[in-house]
Design goal:
The complex is a heterodimer of chains A (282) and B (66). Chain A is mostly helical and 282 residues long. Chain A folds into two domains: 1-144, no CATH class; 150-282, no CATH class. Helices cover 60% and strands 4% of the residues of chain A. Chain A is built from eleven helices and two strands. In chain A, strands 1-2 form a two-stranded antiparallel sheet. Chain B has one domain (4-63). Chain B has helices spanning 4-26, 30-63. Classes of the chains: A mainly alpha (282), B mainly alpha (66). Chain A binds chain B through residues 1, 174-175, 178-179, 182-183, 185-186, 189, 193, 235-236, 239, 242-243, 246, 250, 253-254, 256-257, 261, and chain B through 1-2, 6, 10, 13-14, 17-18, 20-22, 24-25, 28, 30, 33.
Chain lengths: 282, 66
């Protein structure tokens, strides 16, 4: 079955919305003419970023890389916070590129630093999903539908909220259980193998960036399991790290699928494609 | 300590998860997803077992101190 695609002018607007959103969450929504959403995403993403940096004493920057040009710092690379690109650069300038640790203190002295890491990391992940949301609002504006139906960006966001939920909203019950069961099951198995201590930025910063892609299921689990530490070297803790990180990446795959399928449904309904217009009605 | 059975069990779990997610992304109909999942599960798990087997042979023949 041939996938449908938005018209060329709409595609251009969608691409601009994604680019603007990745620079500054909310800016892409202005491109779609949605001021309310623009304000919501700007406040949410910047609030999480700056709130998280404040709770963790800017120690997030210890996990990033500062790029220099001619001896001058010009760019802070920090994953996954970089999804909120200009926010991170502005915060790095405000913090004078220094963290608590660079100032001679240990991050352990900050009791809420792990919550801070989760908040700033969530800001980056949500910023990337805000880009998808802004992009789909351009489609919604250019090819409106009379009946109620989940938008592509709404489906992607729902998948981030709970893997499988985006497919449920677009009427794909089988894929709901397939993605939801697989991703949450893999994450649960991974956490069990790591004795619920393997979602830890300080110990595994690169794995942590991948784990953050799981969304609120992972973020809440990490917050609840925060006091847990590896009591010893566990036999399958490496597999646990792999599984939980893979669950994060699989969430992105599921979100891409839910976006693409919901977009196809939307276009089929908007254009009245025979035999497909009713597919995926919410 | 890990065991061979434990490693195999984890390989089966991960291969199944990977195969189902990739097939879910590539296909739309449940029957096609199941069929693709089985094929990808076998491909991935057998490839890992083959690489593990080669590593074991290299270990026995070349790397182990005499």
């Amino acid at each position: 079955m041939q996938a449908l695609a938005p018209a060329e002018p709409t595609r251009k607007r969608m691409e601009r919305a994604v680019g603007l959103s990745l620079l500054l969450p909310g800016a892409g929504h202005l491109q779609a003419g949605r001021f309310g959403w623009a304000l919501f995403w700007a406040i949410l993403c910047q609030g999480l970023l700056f709130g998280g940096l404040s709770l963790a004493g800017n120690s997030q920057f210890d996990y990033g890389k500062l790029i220099h040009l001619g001896g001058r710092p010009i760019l802070m690379l920090l994953i996954p916070e970089m999804g909120n690109f200009l926010g991170v650069q502005f915060a790095a300038v405000l913090a004078k590129m220094h963290s608590v640790e660079a100032g001679g203190h240990l991050p352990e002295h900050l009791p809420w630093r792990n919550l801070g890491y989760l908040m700033s990391g969530a800001s980056g992940v949500l910023s990337a999903f805000a880009a998808a949301h802004a992009s789909s609002l351009c489609l919604v504006r250019d090819e409106p539908l009379a009946q109620r139906r989940v938008s592509p960006g709404g489906a992607a966001l729902a998948t981030l909220l709970l893997p499988g939920l985006g497919h449920w909203l677009s009427g794909r019950r089988f894929k709901t259980w397939l993605f939801g069961g697989t991703i949450v099951g893999l994450f649960a198995l991974g956490m069990t193998l790591g004795d619920f201590a393997d979602f830890d930025r300080q110990r595994h910063p690169y794995y942590w960036a991948g784990q953050m892609l799981l969304g609120p299921v992972g973020w809440i689990t990490a917050f609840l399991c925060e006091p847990q530490r590896f009591p010893s070297v566990l036999p399958y803790q490496d597999a646990g790290l792999l599984f939980t990180t893979a669950a994060g990446f699989f969430t992105v795959i599921a979100a891409l699928d839910s976006y693409h399928r919901a977009e196809d449904d939307w276009l089929a309904a908007a254009r009245g494609v025979p035999g497909r217009a009713a597919a995926g009605a919410a | 300590m890990t065991s061979l059975l434990g490693q195999l069990g984890l390989l089966v779990a991960f291969s199944a998860a990977l195969a189902m997610v990739v097939s879910g992304y590539r296909e739309e109909e449940p029957a096609a997803i199941w069929k693709g999942s089985l094929r990808r599960f076998l491909q991935f798990s057998l490839a890992v077992i083959a690489i593990g087997g080669v590593a074991q042979v290299v270990d026995l023949l070349l790397l182990r101190p005499r």
